[in-house]
Design a protein that fits this description.
Length: about 190
Amino acid sequence: MSKHASLNALLQTEDIPYALLTSSPLVRDTCLCLYVQRAARALARRFDDALRSLGLTNGQFSLLMSLNRPEPPTMGAMAELLALDRTTLTAAIKPLERRGLITVSVDERDRRSRRLSLTPSGHALLIQAIPVWREAHVEVEVALPAATNPDDLRTALLALSEPQPGKVANRQNEFESKERSAALSNVE
């Protein structure tokens, strides 16, 4: 019997104490959530170690990178992009703001919103961080099993990160379209 068939049979059993006793190895061996969390923690540690010499964590690097765009995004757009709630994003922004790497300003079009921008110091730090990130990223991709296509893995992880399956392609296309529009408006 396959692990998936065992899991389905276990989930349908009426004998809950037996199910609890026998489910630990099954969950350990089949739970996607467990595997993704373990991989995420291991990747976070790997990138934290790589970026430590620059005084950055992997989360700070991701936040700074996502601000590296022609038009400063709103807090809401950043929270959605990074899959953070606004409270967590606010806490993540404070040390970067204190270090002078980003600024938070009132949105001129909607005074209730705040926009985030990289400062020249933040941009300079990103220029230093990119080669470090690139080297760590290559090491991660090389460490993948031979049959694993990194692009397929990214696609699968993006699909899992979406609250509503099927909207991945539409949201990616919308994001890319907005980025192109912003880039073109700055060229003109």
